[in-house]
Amino acid sequence: MAWNNQSVVTEFILRGLSSSWELQIFYFLFFSIVYASTVLGNLLIVLTIMSEPRLRSPMYFLLGNLSFIDMSLASFATPKMIADFLSEYKAISFEGCITQIFFLHLLGGAEIVLLISMSFDRYVAICKPLRYLTIMNRRMCVGLVTLSWIVGIFHALSQLAFTVNLPFCGPNEVDSFFCDLPLVIKLACVDTYILGVFMISTSGMIALVCFILLVISYTIILVTVRQHSSGGSSKALSTCSAHFTVVTLFFGPCIFIYVWPFTNFPKDKVLSVFYTIFTPLLNPVIYTLRNKDVKDSMRKLSSRIFKSRKTDHTP
């Protein structure tokens, strides 16, 4: 895909979260801690699932891939945002802006499919327990993860198919800390109404429909769980409630931003921060707090790492 060189604008100015120098110093420290916690938390989940034999089930395989996507989602724009807090000139090249849009929709599309896959996994585990391992075999799990990345790639390319050729010849200030499609297309020198409608149909409505389907799916699962009163059902309820919490945190801001792309809401910037920075941080917290197996495995892994380091430093 060739980028149109006829655009006069060669870079965009990111207005960031605040123009106050004091707030920017605070944001630099705060988001540095949040970003480090996000990467370390999700990385710990990935390493725990890879190293712990009892976490080799389909659910944890999908969870490990979700943590990898969350780690990537937090990394496509946050490091630049943190660096920009210490810079007076917050600029990003046209190519860099397009790259951010691509990875945002790639990772967002992949996560949507993966969350649907995790819902399907829980449905099979609870509603068809005797056939669970037959249906959710390794081939199925690898296929679902592969499908999530394929859908993410095609979704990202569909968003950029028309955007890269838009003429940008005037305003170049993006009212956010990263390039997001609804904000960037408004800066084009042509009427982008049709492109906005396309964006609603491919991003906003797809996110809304997927969220509704996931709500219906988890409702069916929870109704099935409530018909049982065993300890296993209690564990299933805890797992599903954690999954549904993650689904709500991810889809809520996405639907709000992409279903109404023609309207500027003061809270859009807050929502962008939430689903690109805080949601990837909250996911590992939610899963570890609500899942005893993951917590126990993390303690074992941390203990092994600590003992290993202690042995290395022993003369």
TrEMBL record:
Name the membrane topology term.
Answer: Multi-pass membrane protein
InterPro entries for this protein: GPCR_Rhodpsn, GPCR_Rhodpsn_7TM, Olfact_rcpt, Olfactory_Receptors
Q: Name one GO cellular component term.
A: plasma membrane
Looking at the keywords, is Transmembrane helix present? yes
Q: What is its main location?
A: membrane
Q: Does the keyword tRNA-binding apply?
A: no
Q: Which PROSITE patterns match?
A: G_PROTEIN_RECEP_F1_1, G_PROTEIN_RECEP_F1_2
Q: Where is the G-protein coupled receptors family 1 profile domain?
A: 41-287
Among the GO molecular function terms of this UniProt record, one is:
G protein-coupled receptor activity
Say which domain of life the source belongs to.
Answer: Eukaryota
Record CDD domains? 7tmA_OR4-like
Q: Which Pfam families match?
A: 7tm_4 (PF13853)
Q: What is the annotated localization of this protein?
A: Cell membrane; Membrane
Keyword terms, alphabetized: Cell membrane, Disulfide bond, G-protein coupled receptor, Membrane, Olfaction, Receptor, Sensory transduction, Transducer, Transmembrane, Transmembrane helix
Listed transmembrane segments: 25-47, 59-78, 98-120, 141-162, 193-224, 236-260, 272-289
Gene3D superfamilies with a match to the protein in the record? Rhodopsin 7-helix transmembrane proteins
**Role of this protein:** Putative odorant or sperm cell receptor.
What PANTHER family does this protein's entry cite?
OLFACTORY RECEPTOR (PTHR48002)
Give the family this protein belongs to, as stated in its UniProt record.
Answer: Belongs to the G-protein coupled receptor 1 family.
| Protein name (record) | Olfactory receptor
